[in-house]
Amino acid sequence: GAVVSQHPSRVICKSGTSVKIECRSLDFQATTMFWYRQFPKQSLMLMATSNEGSKATYEQGVEKDKFLINHASLTLSTLTVTSAHPEDSSFYICSADTTGGFYDIQYFGAGTRLSVL
Amino acid sequence: GQQLNQSPQSMFIQEGEDVSMNCTSSSIFNTWLWYKQEPGEGPVLLIALYKAGELTSNGRLTAQFGITRKDSFLNISASIPSDVGIYFCAGQLSSNTGKLIFGQGTTLQVKP
User: Fold this and answer.
1) Measured between alpha carbons, how far is B99 from A45 in angstroms, rounded to an integer?
2) I want to staple A74 with a disulfide (CB 3.0 to 4.6 A). Which of A3, A5, A29, B72 is the partner?
3) Which of B9, B102, B106 to mutate to test the interface with A (most CBs of A within 10 A)?
């Protein structure tokens, strides 16, 4: 099956530092990846759509300068939380879209727990 | 914006019981997906549905794509303790941007 690897699984950082999260599709190519944020006991909230070779598309209310997305290859997208603050603490999850044929399916990474002190 | 209404919000059942949850929307979807999420993990795909009326099984799980394309249900038969988790429905709109709309989730607890 399709495997998506997300790294790191957990990160603790000081306020003001930047944190990079990687999302890799291990056994398939993904022209599109997605980044979500999830608060405790809530559903997934889409932050942005990451497109290989082009700029990411951000959802309304998500600061693109705060959450930098780079999709440099068909198997790797990165999310950088710049100048992180405690309110950025959350569970961040990526997904990769399989685009083989007519039907698209999103497979998810295991998530990254970000704690900003 | 588009919303998916998922119910029930939570369920606490006895091991061996059957479980049913559903999602409804005012929008028409091309695809319905059901995911399970365990604490500290990302969602794992359970079943994908592509055609109106389609009924698909995966072990003890059965899901159906509603004939109106605006709803879907997931059934779990003979529940076991490892079924514990949060179940999410997700739909993909016909506009095919690839984006998924998620339901609010159903938290399932199973008493041994």
Assistant:
1) 11
2) A29
3) B102
Reported as a single tens digit per residue, the pLDDT across B40-97 is 999 999 999 999 999 999 999 999 999 999 999 999 999 999 999 999 999 988 665 7
The answer on pLDDT for A2 being more than 90 is no
A72-81 pLDDT per residue, tens: 898 999 999 9
Q: Which of A43, A93, A103 sits opposite B42 (nearest CB)?
A: A93
Partners of residue A69 on adjacent β-strands = A79
Retrieve residue B30's tokens.
């091309």
CA-to-CA distance for A107 and B32, rounded, in angstroms? 14
- Collect all residues of chain B within an 8 Å Cβ-Cβ radius of residue A107: 45
Tokens of B93: 């709109």
Report the residue of chain A nearest B43, measured CA to CA.
A108
The verdict on a CB contact (< 8 Å) between B98 and A49 is yes
Phi-psi region of A87 (alpha: psi -120 to 50; beta: other; left: phi over 0): alpha
Nearest by CB to B102, from A43, A110, A113: name it: A43
